[in-house]
Design brief:
Largest sheet: 5 strands, mixed, barrel
CATH architecture of the domain at 28-129: Beta Barrel
Shape: elongated
Number of helices: 2
Radius of gyration: 23 Å
Strand order of the largest sheet: 2-4-5-7-6
Number of strands: 7
Distance between the termini: 85 Å
CATH superfamily of the domain at 28-129: Nucleic acid-binding proteins
């Protein structure tokens, strides 16, 4: 009888850990989409968690208390000008690089009204990461550049 109780307790603990691991793994999985892919999904996008990326539309950032709404646009050659309205309701402050024209990646869910509710936003300003004149470009090997040497 003592072994049976111990076995049941072990089974419950193992099952709980397995469920938490599975739930955590599926909850943290979010697929990246661009604006045109989200628009093509239509009602299939409702309630699904994914990430959507685009450039922040100039003048679209609106702050209302803790809520921030903005629009992202897809600027590629295949689908120019596709826009998606995003509302951020997360607890973390938005990154310093989040501004008009920045590349933004929003993680959240699509709503029935056509807005995307994000609980996390990442942003980068493309010009911030470009090399200044005379600097080594990111991603290049600095060992292949010529440097003046001095002899003492």
């Amino acid at each position: 009888m003592k072994n049976l109780k111990f076995g049941v307790i072990i089974a419950v603990v193992v099952a709980t850990i397995a469920w938490l691991a599975f739930d955590g793994a599926t909850a943290s999985t979010a697929y990246y989409k661009n604006v045109s892919e989200v628009n093509k999904m239509g009602d299939r996008a409702l309630g699904k968690r994914f990430k959507v990326g685009g450039d922040v539309v100039k003048g679209s950032i609106k702050r209302n208390g803790t809520e921030v709404s903005f629009q992202i646009v897809e600027l590629n050659n295949a689908n120019p000008g596709q826009v998606l309205k995003v509302t951020y309701t997360g607890n973390d402050p938005l990154p310093d690089t989040f501004r008009d024209g920045a590349q933004a990646l929003a993680d959240g869910r699509m709503n029935a009204d056509g807005t995307f509710t994000a609980n996390h936003v990442q942003a980068k300003c493309a010009s911030k990461y470009e090399a200044k004149p005379g600097q080594i470009k990111p991603g290049t090997d600095p060992s292949h550049t010529s440097k003046p040497t001095s002899r003492s």
